[in-house]
Structures are given as C-alpha cells and as structure tokens.
Specification:
Elements: H1 7-41, E1 46-52, E2 63-66, E3 69-80, E4 83-90, E5 101-105, E6 114-118, E7 131-133, E8 138-139, H2 144-158, H3 168-180, H4 184-203, H5 205-224, H6 226-245, H7 247-270, H8 272-291, H9 293-313, E9 314-315, E10 320-321
Helix pairs in contact: 4-8, 5-9
C-alpha cells in the first residue's frame, strides 16, 4: 500500500525545508564575513618617501627591511632634480622612529639590493603616514667602478708618472724596509711602553689638571703685571734688532752648521750599529720609567705644591724670591 501524506505532514515538511534554507544562508553569510573581516579591518600600508643622491640597482618591488627583515617594498623610483625620489610602502604594524633614515644595502656583488630603514624604534616620537626622508638621512653605497677609479688615481699618483717619477717612493720604501728589518719586536715593545706611559698619564689626570690650574693662576699673575711684561717684550724686540743687524754673521754660522750636519750624517752612517745600540738602551730606559710610574705619580703630586710655594715666595714689590729658615732648630744638634 502507498503512503498517504496529510496536509499537516506537508506543512511540517515545508517548514523544515525553509529552516534548512535559512540555516544554510546564515552559514554562508558567516563564512563570507569571516573571510572578508581581515580585509575590511586591515589598515592601509604607510607610504614613506626617501630622497637619495643615486639609486643604482633599486627598482619597483625592491624590498624594504628593518634589521634585515622585510617590512615593505619600493613602489616607484623617479628622478627629482639632483636627487632620486623613492616611494616605499611599509606595513602599518611596524614602528619606526620619527628621525628614521634609509640606506641602500649591497649584500654582495651579485645579490639584489634592498633599502634598510634605520635605526630601529626604541621609544619616543614615531614616524607618521606619508613621511618624507630628506637626502641628509639617506645613504647610498660606493659603486665598484668608483672604488676602482679612486684606486687607479691613487696608483697613478704614486706611480712612475707621479710621485715615483724620480724613484722617491721606491727609495722611501727601500729605506723603511732597511731600517725596520729585524727591529719589529723592539718597535712593538716601544709602542707598548708608550701605551703604558699614556695609561699612567691618564691615571694621573687629576694631578695634571691641578698643574694646569696653577699655570692658569701664574698666567693671571703675568696679566696683573702687564707693564713689566711689556718691558720684557721691548727688551726682546731690541735683542731681535741686534740679531737682524748681525744676520751676515748668522748666515756664516748657518753655513758652518750645514757642514757640521753633513759630518754628523756621515758619522751616523758609519756608526749605525752603535746608534741602534743607543736606541735599545733608550727603550730600556723607557721601560724603567714605566716600571717607576708610582714614583712619577708621586712627583706629579708634589709638583703643584712646589710650584705654588715658588709663586708664594715671589715678592712682586721687590721683584725677588723671598725665603726664610729656622736656624734655631740646629742649636741642639751635636
């Protein structure tokens, strides 16, 4: 027997089909909203415009990075007078400092270049939208042909058509090699001792500053005695006039001095080994001074007081250095 449907059954079936249709429409609408929500709520990329002196190897779609991490790309490169305008889009979630700069990076000779935004954001004002980076905050790498051109100019200037036309550069290198041959260790030791001496002087900088302060006071005293200083200058001027009148005699003395220097040069040439020995002894003396840095420091401590005592002993009215001794302290000596 066939199945018979009543009007009640047909109505219930129609309501169930309508509910299923509404449920399907709601599910499809929910899926569409879920898929479109990120697109609807996504913030637009920020536009940053940089002005470079040159942009060799930078094109649209060139990556923009921070600390090597891509955050955007170049969208347009156009010349603007003496500069090149590079338009970049940057992700809105990346924070950049207001004074950010742009550097064109060349990882290697064959790798693609990219634009690095630096420094990273550590706090403070942020870079806003549609920002502009002036040429003062952009840097482009030195091209290989420019580097080779500069190197070629240097080699030409030092070559046979330049400074070495008469062999001057070759002579300097040859003599330097001769003088430094075998003396590398001693030269290194001397430099080391010089560094230790500089360190010792740095440790005594307070005493040095006190000495400078005392010298400043001494200079102030000279300024207070300006009349006497002018008198001394006039006397020096008179001495200079006498020297000018005797210039012929000085010319003869200079000629003799030149001859003496020639003799000294020959002496040094003939006694190079002994001169080297003296230099070695000087290095030992320098090392000894370094070992006695405590004594030097004590001397630097006492020098300002000694200078202050000399200044206190000076009698401006009489122009003398006054002092006094306690003779009675020797009365009980046996």
């Amino acid at each position: 027997m066939g199945r018979h449907f009543t009007l009640t059954d047909l109505g219930a079936h129609a309501r169930r089909r309508a509910w299923l249709r509404r449920l399907a429409v709601a599910v499809v609408a929910g899926l569409l909203v879920t898929a479109a929500w990120p697109l609807l709520t996504r913030q637009a990329d920020r536009v940053v415009t940089g002005f470079f002196t040159a942009t060799v190897g930078v094109y649209p779609n060139t990556e923009v990075r921070v600390l090597g991490v891509p955050i955007g790309s170049v969208t347009k490169v156009e010349p603007r007078g003496t500069n090149v305008e590079v338009t970049m889009t940057v992700r809105p979630d990346v924070k950049l400092p207001a004074d950010v700069g742009a550097v064109v990076i060349t990882p290697s000779l064959v790798a693609d270049r990219y634009v690095q935004l630096t420094p990273v954001y550590l706090g403070g004002p942020e870079l806003g939208g549609d920002a502009r980076i002036p040429p003062e905050r952009t840097v482009t790498p030195v091209e290989v042909d420019e580097l080779l051109g500069s190197l070629n100019q240097l080699m030409t200037a030092l070559g046979p058509k330049g400074a070495n036309r008469d062999g001057a550069v070759s002579d300097v290198l040859t003599k330097a090699a001769t003088y430094l041959d075998g003396n590398g260790g001693k030269l290194g030791e001397a430099i080391k001792n010089l560094g230790e001496f500089a360190r010792t002087a740095s440790d005594s900088k307070d005493d040095l500053f006190n000495s400078v302060d005392n010298i400043s006071k001494f200079t102030a005293m000279l300024a207070a005695n300006d009349g006497k200083v002018k008198q001394a200058i006039q006397q020096i001027s008179s001495l200079s006039k006498i020297l000018a009148d005797q210039r012929d005699q000085f010319s003869g003395a200079m000629t003799e001095l030149t001859e003496a220097l020639s003799v000294v040069q020959g002496f040094i040439k003939d006694n190079r080994g002994k001169v080297k020995s003296d230099v070695d002894k000087l290095a030992e003396i320098t090392k000894l001074l370094t070992q006695q840095k405590a004594s030097l420091s004590e001397a630097l401590d006492a020098a300002p007081n000694a200078l202050a005592n000399v200044l206190g002993a000076y009698n401006q009215g009489a122009g003398t250095l006054d002092g006094r001794g306690n003779i009675t302290e020797f009365s009980g000596a046996k």
